[in-house]
Amino acid sequence: MNKTLTALCIAVATCATPVGLATAQAASGYTQTRHPIVLAHGLFGFDAIGPADYFFGVASALRRDGATVITTQQSAANSSEARGEQLLAELRRLKAAHGHQKFNLIGHSHGGHTIRYVAAVAPELVASVTTVGTPHRGTVVADALYAVTQATGTTPLAAGIADALASIISAISGAPRLPQNSEAALRSLSTAGSQAFNQRFPAGAPTTACGSGASVVNGVRYYSAGGTSVVTNLLDVDSSLSITSVLFLGKANDGLVERCSSRWGTVLRDNYPWNHLDEVNQTFGLRGWFTPNPVAFYRTQANRLKNAGL
After folding, report:
1. End-to-end CA distance of the chain
2. What's the pTM value of the predicted model, to 2 decimals?
3. Quick check: helix, strand or coil at residue 28?
């Protein structure tokens, strides 16, 4: 790699693999999994708004190297079960329309709960589950927000404002009819709500407080990853996550999710130097210098799934 290209890669912090290697990987179908890859967004998420994908640049990179990728859209804000039912209905439509038998599900943040729900109630449709930055044990941020609104009697007002925002997000991303329930979403992401969800759907749960879980349950493979940085690029709007990170009282976190809470099934890595939005390559790929490229993470995971026959 010449000095000019190296300098450019460092400046924009997006260089993941040498050009020759990337070309060889593409030629060999590096990301060409047996089953389609399905991307599920998190709270206040979307599939795409104009040129801005929620998983920014991920789907195109995976498709370029051979993968069939489906970006899905659930309610921007709703309970884990409601969002899971929406995704399940979409997968069943895709199976009926295109003959897909199984899917490799990848979910970010609340999307992790969403895909776990589908794997639990319809394992015959799921080849693998990969969660990224998911608060499996809940997040103190949701706990704090719920406690404050309950104590001040502002829960209905706050929920109304959040529902309106969620409705706008869904509408401008092409899904105006999806129901929104921000209070249900907050309860789902709280420590108590996540604990109840885990009791109903325990597949892949860690066997210790900060350990790993079963790698395969009911024929479904479980993987997880997470980040532990907060302010990664001062030019990036997601540096505002530093405000919420103070709630974790010294525990490593990505600004919204504590490190141990992100662990589920086979833990690929729980300390990437990314914050919560870096995990999906937002905002527009801005992140810390010299940090791993999130797109490369998804490419590597797709290759792992391919090599596992999935």
Report:
1. 33
2. 0.90
3. coil
Q: Which of 163, 236, 254, 278 is catalytic?
A: 254
Query: Do the Cβ atoms of 58 and 111 come closer than 8 Å?
Result: no
Bridge partners (DSSP) listed for residue 267: 224
Strand extents, DSSP E, 167-219: 216-217
- Are 210 and 252 in contact by the 8 Å Cβ rule? The answer is no
Whether 233 and 277 have beta carbons less than 8 Å apart is answered as no
The rounded percent of the chain whose pLDDT value lies above 90 is 80
- In this model, does residue 9 exceed pLDDT 80? no
**Cα separation values, 265 from 4, 84, 112, 202, 306, Å:** 42, 19, 12, 10, 18
Q: Catalytic residue at 276? A: yes
From the list 249, 219, 205, the residue with the least C-alpha distance to 309 is 219
Other beta carbons within 10 Å of 177: 7
**What are the E-state strand segments in 103-219?**
103-108, 126-132, 216-217
80 or 287: which carries more pLDDT confidence?
Answer: 80
Cβ(75)–Cβ(178) below 8 Å: yes
Among 109, 173, 190, 194, the one annotated catalytic: 109
- CA atoms of 307 and 304, how far apart (whole Å): 5
* DSSP secondary structure letters along 28-52: TTTT--SS-EEEE--TT--SEETTE
Would you state the pLDDT for residue 231? 87
> Of 220, 146, 156, which is closest to residue 189 (Cα–Cα)?
146
188 annotated active-site: no
Active-site position among 136, 261, 276, 278: 276
